[in-house]
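Support request, please re-run this one:
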Amino acid sequence: MSTASLNTATRLPLDGVRVVEFTHMVMGPTCGMILADLGAEVIKIEPPAGDDYRAIGPFSAGESGLFHAMNRNKQSVVIDLKHDDGRVLAQSLCAQADVVLENFRPGVAERLGIGYAELSALNPALVYASVSGFGQTGPESHRPAYDIILQAMCGLMDVTGSPDGAPTLVGDSISDAVSGLFASWGVLAALLARERTGKGTHVDVAMFDATLSLTAGMVARYATTGVAPRRVGNRHASSAPFGAYRAKDGYFVVAVLNNRLFERFAQSIGQPELIGDARFIDDATRCENEAALRAYVESWSAVHSIAEVNARLSDVGIPVAPIQNISEALESEQARARGLLIETTSAHGGALRLPRQPVHFSAWPTMRTTRAPGLGEHTQAVLERYLGLDVARIAGLRDGGAIGPVAVPAHEAN
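Re-run finished. Output below.
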């Protein structure tokens, strides 16, 4: 691994790990983001036009909030991989790296001269991660993929929504995010193995595989019964009462998974007779008679506020919660206590709020969270530091179109 400059006492878990990232949009950058959060030096190689996510809103002071979230803690180097000199520069950086990340369709990295075979020949210890829609093998591997494509093809949309409604998209890019998460896990496992063997490997992650792995309960039900799960709306497919219910001023969720909790629940809502009712004698019968049970639950909850429902059920240990929007979740006392949003400084010198990685370590009480880089902001510094190029050589590469123009952070240019 590359040499870290920080004192041992202040080093983060991945200090000293150098990552060269050829990724764009969400799934690949998410993997790099996780590694960067943990202290890895992530050098993001961008084409002259930049990562597409730089142009996708919402925007603040002309900068994409989505790009900032996915690319915090990274450096940006602009290299044109279609230019011969640019390709050589990229290969030289990869020859010194611990990890390379790419999320092109299979075959594209090879055509650009940064495929696994070529780079591992230069650097046998290299851990090389490819994240794509359908992986490096299989009849669908050539297909482009977006999150909605994978949600549709992996059964996630089919089980989301009302039973009598249309298949429904999950509210965020979950297939993208989980693919990046699995990729980071694969990279860390490969780095650990390399400590023992000295050899790198190719990590192949497919959004298709990752999304199906995410839906572990759904996969287990099908593998056990041979029957595909169906949409059940805002309730659990095999337990009750377990879902969303109406209160006087909105909705809440409750999770009752066994007879002990159900007895306590029935007592708490003032309907102890439900305990001996043959329709509700165990989890299976309660699920079969969910509509009737729902009527009993909502005859009680409909005359109470969400706050009253939560207080009553929480007091006796029933899992219960209000349904919050993202603002309520992120501005909650719990989110503040866990430090899930961090204030840092934007490229314009103003305040910028960024999500923080969610894992806490006793050995590292704080993690770094810095803004995403401006396009090509670190091109000159990286080429000088790691390839030993002088100013004249870098200027010649810039004039020839192999690298991007000199980039200056906005707050320094004013």
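Residues 174-197 form the longest helix (24 residues). Confidence is low (pLDDT under 50) at residues 2-9, 410-414.
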